[in-house]
Design brief:
By secondary structure, this protein is of the alpha+beta class. The chain is built from 4 helices and 16 strands. The termini are far apart.
């Protein structure tokens, strides 16, 4: 009888233990976080960030791999005002340490920090956001790659808000990843955000940051990614003798060249391209082009 009672108690204890979750996180995984004050953080692991990298300019796809019903179940069907963040990072052992962050505003200066600061802060925070839910804690989950956790609850140390603010839950620190990002990394729905690749200073000159693409967010939760830089806007042209100066807007780290023609009927793909290449820094840049003397038309190619 004693054995039967003990066996029954053991079975009840086993049933009380939450089932193991299938959440898996690896360095380079792209994390998608939804957050709103007064609500739990909802996080999804979308798999390798490489799925969005090295795409041709203009490549368009919907970002999938997350459960929209978990999001609407928490925040309601109208997601207006809900904040969204995307982030990823290589391991500390990677020979080319890199982070990827969304941004609600253009970054006009390169994000350059020492390698030690990158390891301790930026990479450390992103890795913690992805890896802490692996600890044996009770987190309500929906599916193999998502979790919901209250930043003020008993398992708060695994919540996004808690991690990025060091447990203070400071509303002024959260938008810039606890102060470790040079720009705001979250965007309210609906809206659009930039997706940046950032590398720490590891030589001279420092490696440039650059815009991987842009992401638009709809109130129905649709996330659409478009690869490549924003289109450049020509801000002015001047001409001195046979030299034309064409000025245009730029995005940090992207490359720009000038295509020209004196025959507008020619397909744009056939326009000659000036040999000069300009690297963007977030400010207006100018390309000086020597022409044949006849009237010419210009367009800026962004890569």
């Amino acid at each position: 009888m004693k054995k039967i009672i003990l066996s029954s108690l053991a079975l009840l204890a086993a049933l009380a233990v939450p089932p193991a979750r299938a959440w898996t996180y690896n360095d380079n995984d792209l994390l998608l976080v939804f957050r709103k004050s007064g609500h739990p953080n909802l996080e999804f692991d979308l798999g390798s960030v490489s799925n969005l990298l090295n795409r041709a300019t203009g490549y368009t796809t919907n970002i999938v791999g997350w459960d929209s019903t978990l999001v609407t179940g928490e925040f309601g069907t109208d997601l207006t005002g809900v904040k969204v963040i995307l982030l990823a990072a290589t391991s500390k052992a990677n020979p080319t340490p890199t982070a990827w962050l969304s941004g609600a505003e253009p970054n006009t200066t390169a994000y350059n920090v020492s390698l030690s600061a990158w390891n301790a802060n930026l990479q450390g925070i992103i890795s913690a956001v992805g890896s802490k839910p692996l600890y044996p804690i009770l987190i309500p989950t929906n599916g193999a790659n998502g979790y919901s956790i209250d930043p003020g609850g008993s398992t708060a140390y695994a919540a996004y808000d808690y991690i990025v603010t060091g447990g203070t839950l400071s509303s002024t620190k959260i938008p810039k990843l606890g102060g470790n990002a040079a720009f705001i990394v979250e965007q309210a729905i609906p809206g659009s955000l930039d997706f940046w690749q950032i590398q720490p200073t590891s030589g001279s000159p420092a490696p440039p940051d650059y815009l991987v693409g842009t992401i638009t967010l709809a109130t129905d939760g649709t996330l659409t990614f478009v690869a490549g830089p924003r289109a450049a806007t020509v801000s002015g042209t001047t001409r001195d003798s046979n030299v034309s100066a064409v000025s245009f807007s730029t995005t940090v780290g992207n490359h720009y060249s000038l295509a020209f023609t004196n025959q507008l009927r020619a397909p744009v793909s056939t326009w000659p391209v000036d040999s000069q290449i300009v690297v963007g820094n977030g400010n207006v840049k100018t390309i000086n082009h020597t022409n044949s003397g006849s009237a010419e038309f210009y367009r800026i190619i962004a890569q």
